[in-house]
Amino acid sequence: MSDCSRTVDDVRTFLQSSKGFDPQQMMRFYDSWAETYEQDHNLMSYRAPHLAVDFLSKNFSGSPAEAQVLDVTCGSGWVAKLMVKLGFRHFVGVDGSKGMLEQAAKTGLYQDLKLALLGPEPLPAPTGVFDVVIIVGGLRAEFAPVSVVRELCQAAKLGGYICMSRVDPKSESGNNYKVSLEKELQLMEEEGLWTHVDTKEMDKYMMTVHNNHNNNNKNEQYFDGTMYLYRKSLN
Hints:
Layout: H1 8-16, H2 23-33, H3 37-43, H4 48-59, E1 68-72, H5 78-84, E2 90-95, H6 98-106, E3 110-115, E4 130-136, H7 148-155, E5 156-168, H8 172-190, E6 194-207, E7 222-232
Helix pairs in contact: 4-5
C-alpha cells in the first residue's frame, strides 16, 4: 500500500536503519519494504532499471518476443515491466526476499519466480537457457558475492547477453567490491567465457542515503554507478 505522505527524508531514515545488516537480515528488511519499494525509489530518483534496460536494448540483436530473460534480484518486477514495453515476453525472476517476489507475482509477467539468497544458495536457474540474464542493483557486498557473476554467465545460452548494473556507495567496502568485481569480469573474459560488449558509467544513479541539506554541491547528493554488458562465448 502506497503512502503519499512519505518524504525523501523518511526514506533516508528507513534505509539508514539497515546499515550493517548481513544478507539474511537485509532480505527481511526488503520483506518489510516490498509494498512501498517502487514508490520510495521514485522519491530517491532511482534510475537504474530504466538505464539498464535502455543499455541492454541498444545492444540486443535478437528477437525480444522470443527471448528468454532471467531477471536476477528481480525485486518487485520493475525491470520486467520496463522490458515488456520493448517487446520482451518471457521472464523468470529470482530474489532473496519473499515479500519482493509477492510483488513481482502481482505483475503477471513472470512464468516462474524463485526464492534464493545468492551466495549461500546457488542461483536456481538451468544452465545455458537464457538469451538475457540481467541483474540490476544486486551487485553489492550485502546482496551477493562477486562469484555470482559466474553463475549468471552459466545461465545464459551461447551468445546470450549478461547485463549487470552496480551502484557505487562511496565507501571502502563498496570500492573493494568494485575492484574485485571488475577483476573477476576481466578474468572471465581472459578465460574465454564471454566477450565484453560495453561498459557505461551511470551519472546520478540515485540520491544518496545520507542527508546533504548543508552541502551546496548538488552532484554529491547522488550515487553514481556502472553498467556492464557481456556476451557469452559461442564455444
